[in-house]
Amino acid sequence: MTSPVDEGRILPRHAAVPLPRADPDPRPAPPVAKHPGKRRLYVLDGLRLVAALMVVAYHYMAYNRVHYWGKSTAAVFPTGNKFAIYGWLGVYLFFLISGFVICLSCWGRTPRQFAVSRFIRLYPAYWVGLILTSAVLYFRPGGTKLQLTDVLTNATMVQQGLHVHDVDGVYWSLWAELRFYMLFAVVVVMGLTYRRVVSFCVIWLAASVIAEATGDKLLNVVANPVYSPFFIGGVAIYLMYRFGPRPELWLLTAASWLDGQHQMKVLVAGSERVTKVDESWTVSMVLVTLFYAVVIAAALGKLDFINWRWMTVAGSITYPLYLIHEDIGWEIIRHGRHHMSPYALVACIVPVMVLAAYLIHRLIERPAAAWLKNWLSPARAAAVRPPS
User: Distance between CA atoms of 62 and 82, rounded to whole angstroms?
Assistant: First the structure.
């Protein structure tokens, strides 16, 4: 999912970073936008929490798993279901934020630093979530068809590319994230500059259209056309944050939105297949448009007055919350639905999942990040390098 803001830290726009490689284009690059004072985008942390809770509500109150609730979620939550059916859009808010944050977190970094930061951010919490979910599915009454080889393949996070099913359904979005990272790594290796990143977005958007037009399987895997507009939108908005709202960036953002609204027809239909109720394309696009508007407003400094420090912690737990809530939550629902009302049960499960996510972040993610960062540091790598 957010994929998440890099280690929960949003640097002020004027923060010192190593200079990028020289741009061979002789024309002057756009000046970096200047904002007085320190700026931390607390809003992005808050938006990540909103996105995660939307997905949680969708899985608990809209996803039509009759064998967990005993009847359809529309019957169990006649009012809540009408809102929860749009919770899947939280994933696309994650994608939008991810495009923004990947640019922010790797600008001025070396390719090695980029790869290490992504590995540290994604894998420790993912492995914990995979172990916990696999254990719950294996030891639940009646057992499971889950095989050890599938769990081990899932540990790579590329199981979809290897045609192995996800241990937990939410893992599908991580394959989309990884493909974005691999594409963006090409620009990182070349050296991040304004023109290169804009060109990357334009080429990726064009490749996505060509992939759909031709149906080429390889190009579809690489270009990721269904999800690419949201990542591209996030990257374009980051460029507004760093360089100011230039006309070409507004056009690029608008192009990503237009492509996204086209993809929304397919995405809404896909959601309807699992919720078993009609969903509105119009409502979906209103929410997506709102996502774009809020992220743009945050990037342009319009929401700097929202500076609640608790949002930093809230943003840091969204990734583990996303990873552990679905199958584990459904098992709790299956055994708890006979003992309390549906709304009360959900009201109890969500805080438990939030607490578990916080413990994973505090006790595993942070220590693991510190250890891995030291272990993978260039100095240590040079120290243990075998003699030639």
Answer: 8
Which residue in this structure is represented by tokens 């270009």?
Answer: 223
* Pick from 342, 270, 328: nearest CA to 73: 342
Q: How far apart are CA 286 and CA 284, in angstroms?
A: 5
User: pLDDT per residue over 23-68, tens digit each?
Assistant: 444 445 555 544 433 467 889 999 999 999 999 999 999 999 888 8
Rounded Cα distance, 361 and 378, in Å? 25
193 has pLDDT over 90: yes
State residue 9's pLDDT score.
38
Amino acid at 212: E
Given a contact cutoff of 8 angstroms between Cβ atoms, the answer to whether 274 and 64 are in contact is yes
Rounded Cα distance, 249 and 236, in Å? 6
Residue owning tokens 């060509």: 210
| Lowest mean pLDDT, pick from 269-278, 293-302, 369-378 | 369-378
Give tens-digit pLDDT for 146-161. 889 999 999 999 999 9
Cα–Cα dist 378/384, whole Å: 10
Tokens 């994933």 belong to 91
Q: Name the strand (E) or helix (H) holding 286.
A: helix 281-299
Q: Do 73 and 64 contact (CB within 8 A), yes or no? A: yes
Q: N- to C-terminal Cα distance for the chain?
A: 41
